């Protein structure tokens, strides 16, 4: 990952936060000599030494699945809030158009999980996502085996990725003046979409600014 020093995340916890807030990652690796990717939801275990562990699953029919037994290295990219930034969104002049964003790259070698740990991965993933739909009553994975679930389990492969390296870039105006950072956050709040509100929150949170919208945390999904 190319990242000027001033766009670095403040700590490992900030990178973990982004992964948990935006758990739908792009996992890439080489298949038959060609770069290949698959989009998957992940569960992050923060406390797994030294940088954490990802857990996910994919279809056994995916060509990537057979390589997960081969100790290959993968990269998983997680993209946080992002948006175009206009020169009009600054307090000073002159500026050029740019893009504000945050992203985290995770690298490691996957290990395939057995059926019991696959069920655990599914249970944790569903519980995490259902919890974000409150006050809806959470949907729970059936505790007892059934023909339908047993058939589904045969179609997927669960795996974990012990994190060997984690790199983040939080390009949130750190190379600009405090007045410009405040103006950027205000401009995104004025747009009013969920994505813009979340980006404004990131700019304020990671630049130590007064967080004008922290009493109502934005959702991570773009409104229609």
TrEMBL record:
Matches recorded under InterPro entries: Split_barrel_FMN-bd, TR_PAI2-type
Protein species of origin: Saccharothrix syringae (Nocardiopsis syringae)
Domain of life assignment: Bacteria
Classification via SUPFAM superfamilies: FMN-binding split barrel (SSF50475)
Pfam families in the record: FMN_bind_2
Protein name (record): FMN-binding negative transcriptional regulator
